[in-house]
Automatic annotation (TrEMBL), chain A:
Family, per entry: Belongs to the aspartate/ornithine carbamoyltransferase superfamily. ATCase family.
Record-given protein name: Aspartate carbamoyltransferase
Source organism of the structure: Streptomyces echinoruber
Summary of subunit composition and partner proteins: Heterododecamer (2C3:3R2) of six catalytic PyrB chains organized as two trimers (C3), and six regulatory PyrI chains organized as three dimers (R2).
Gene: pyrB
Molecular function in Gene Ontology: amino acid binding; aspartate carbamoyltransferase activity
Any one biological process term the GO annotation gives: amino acid metabolic process
From TrEMBL, chain B:
Keyword Transferase part of the UniProt annotation: yes
Alphabetized Pfam families for the sequence: Pribosyltran
Family label: Belongs to the purine/pyrimidine phosphoribosyltransferase family. PyrR subfamily.
Gene: pyrR
Record flagged with keyword Transcription regulation: yes
Protein's name according to its UniProt entry: Bifunctional protein PyrR
SUPFAM superfamilies in the record: PRTase-like
Catalytic activity: UMP + diphosphate = 5-phospho-alpha-D-ribose 1-diphosphate + uracil
Uppermost EC category: transferase
GO function term, MF aspect, one: uracil phosphoribosyltransferase activity
NCBIfam families: PRK05205.1-3 (NF003547), PRK05205.1-5 (NF003549)
Source taxon at top rank: Bacteria
GO biological process terms on file: regulation of DNA-templated transcription
CDD domains in UniProt: PRTases_typeI
Amino acid sequence: MQRHLISAADLTRDDAVLILDTAEEMSRVADRPIKKLPTLRGRTVVNLFFEDSTRTRISFEAAEKRLSADVINFSAKGSSVSKGESLKDTAQTLEAMGVDAVVIRHGASGAPYRLANSGWIDAAVINAGDGTHQHPTQALLDAFTMRRRLIGRDAGLGQDLSGKRVTIVGDILHSRVARSNVDLLHTLGAEVTLVAPPTLLPVGVETWPCAVSYDLDAALPKCDAVMMLRVQRERMNAAFFPTEREYSRRYGLDGDRMAKLPEHAVVMHPGPMVRGMEITAEVADSGRCTAVEQVTNGVSIRMAVLYLLLGGNEPAVAPTRTEEK
Amino acid sequence: MDTQASPARPVLEAPDIARVLTRIAHEIVERAKGADDVVLLGIPTRGVFLAQRLAAKLERITERKVPCGSLDITMYRDDLRMQPPRALARTDIPGDGIDGKLVVLVDDVLFSGRTIRAALDALNDIGRPRAVQLAVLVDRGHRELPIRADYVGKNLPTSLRETVKVQLAEEDGRDTVLLGAKPATPGERQH
């Protein structure tokens, strides 16, 4: 039986907490003189990136290398995909080479699910972002960052995020980060509020396990973490808001707005940040902004996921939905 | 996990364990000629508590602070691929590190020796000790690797059909070492 990480919604509370706790131990490897563990020696992991990414790809690569896996990087540019090869043929090529796991980023929502459930490939599939659907490791690293900052490194072990209030601001419509975060934070017991202009909220958002508001100033004083999302200019093919200036004035986070946050609250950003748009340089460079920390934590989270999915003879994390084979 | 087949028989009780640890502490001081550079590293779970108790006893004998930490060997196990991934335990190396120090690994039961092999591998990635020694509460025999303990609380000749279970107050609410018979399901070793 094959197990994968396709969606943050597949994780139970216990799975998610296990991943966060494992990541906490993995993070200690970064403090050692030799930042390497022999755990995945002899296993081959392919990073299959059909969409551009720096952060996520480098983060996965660092995680794989720290666990001693053999890493093959594949990007659609300069590969047979640009000659018209289908996902199926690419997958079968990888299968023929005997890979143990595929980390896939794809522009089409559902591509990782298809890869995992099609029978094309035997390897574990880890979703590194698909279209506007899911980005589960991002949600996990965000939850990890929140737990560390809001509860504490050691105090957080074994804990979920019960009662924490998280506000996610910006382009919810195109954001797989927002979707994954809503699913995971809900599972972990946090209360999520989405704040965005009505045009940047997806149809059916009222069925999500979260609250929705159009008013950022009202939401700020009562949250423990505020997550700013990038306005995805490359997906802005319609007039979602009148001008960038208006967007930034109503939904951007500047120093004055940050002052309305409770003392302990943190400002998060999955990156890449567009300074001056959704976040000002003053906020981005302040001690409350965890953007850089999130990148560091990303490596630990991805090590934990790789270890739990590939480290033993069967995965420790058992998604419930993706077993149709 | 106690066995249901026959009741487990205690072979060491709380006062015995305390005496044994006191003896090992004195042996460490004697062999290390004062234990100036000793670092105790316990192997989770129960090795860590034993290491802490040993450290307290060493401090009483030498009147000096003895660094004490933990070393999780899960990621270095040679049977990692044969079972589901285990949850990781804490690796906590004392501030000054282990380079040039005398590291004493502490575990509850010495059995196949595979845990200690994994611990030696893990140490290799953390630093280069002057020497590594091994202290165990119980040595039950049946080694599968050329590994031996430097300090042994109790040599306990056992058959492979028996189980040795160490219980410590910190984890189990009481101090005792139990010798029992293995339940009907074969093929699994407890230590």
